[in-house]
Amino acid sequence: MGVELVAVWCGVLCAAATVWWLHRQDEAVRRARLMFAEAGAHADVPQAGARWRACRARTLAVLERGRGWAEKRLGTRIGREALCVPTGLVLSVPAHSPVPALAGLLAAVGLGRQLRSRERRLRAEGWRDAIAGLCGAVAGELRAGRPPEVVLAEAVERLRAPGGPDGAHDALTPLLAAARFGGDVPVALRRAAGMPGAEGLAGAAACWEVAADGGSGLADGLDRVAAALRAERDQREDLRAQLAGSKATAAMLALLPGFGLLLGCAMGADPFRVLLRTAAGLGCLLVGGALETAGLVWTARIVRAAEEGT
Q: Residues 193-209: pLDDT tens digits?
C-alpha cells in the first residue's frame, strides 16, 4: 500500500509540475503576442499544448454541428450553454444519480449568463474600435479639404455595411440621414452614442459643435477623440495581459477538487459513489459546490472591478 501511495503522489506532483510549466509557457506566449501586436508584426508564436487545443477544437466542432442540426429541427436558436443539459443527462446514466443532470442544468444557466456577458463586451469593444476608425478617417479626409458632411456620410455608410459593428445599420441610420440631408449632426451623433461602446461619438458631437464651419479645427478634435479611444483600448489590452496569470491561477485552483476526486479513484476509495449515492456525500457535494461557486464568483467580481476601473 505504501508503494502505491508513493506512486500516486509522484503522479500528482508530475501533473502539478506539468500544469505549472504550461502556465509559464502561456504567460510567455501572451507577452510575445502583446509585444508583436504593439510592433505591428504578425509572427508565428509557439503555442503550448497544441495537441490539446486541436482536440478541443475538433470536439467543439462536432458539438457545434449537433447544435446546428437541433436548431434546424426545432426551428429555434439554441445557445452553446444548452449543450450542458444533454451532457449532464448522459453522465447521469452511469452514475445512477440525478445529480449530474441537475448540475448540467445549473451549469447551462451560469454559462449562458457568462456567454451573454461576453457577447455584450465584445460588441461594445467592436463599437469602440469602429468609432476610433471613423474619427481618424473623417479627420484625414477633412485635412484633404473635403466637406465635413460628405466625409461623415461616407464613413457612416462604411460602418453600416456588412461586417461592421452589431446593430450599426439601425443605430447609424439617423446619423446618415442628418449628414446627407442637412440635419442636426451633433444631435444625431449624441443619439448614436447611446449604443454600448459608441460613447466616443459624444466627443465627436462636441467637436462638431465647436468647429461647425472650420474643417481644420474639427479634424484636430476628431484626431484627439480617436487617439483617446485607441489609448483606452491599449490600456484595456495591457490590463488583460496582466490579469491573465491571475485568471489561470484561479482556474487551476478551481480544478483542484477534480484532482482530489481522481486521486481518490486512484487509491480505490470510489469517491463518486460516496458523493452521489449517500446522504453524507450529497451534503458534502452541496457544501463544496456552494463554496466553489462562491470562490469563482468572487474572483470574477475582482477581475471585473479591475477591468472596469480602467
A: 888 888 899 998 888 88
Q: For residue 121, is pLDDT > 50?
A: yes
d(CA 273, CA 61): 32
- Tell me if the pTM is above 0.85: no
Flag the least confident range among 52-56, 102-106, 185-189, 253-257: 52-56
Q: Is-contact 100 74, C-beta < 8 A?
A: no
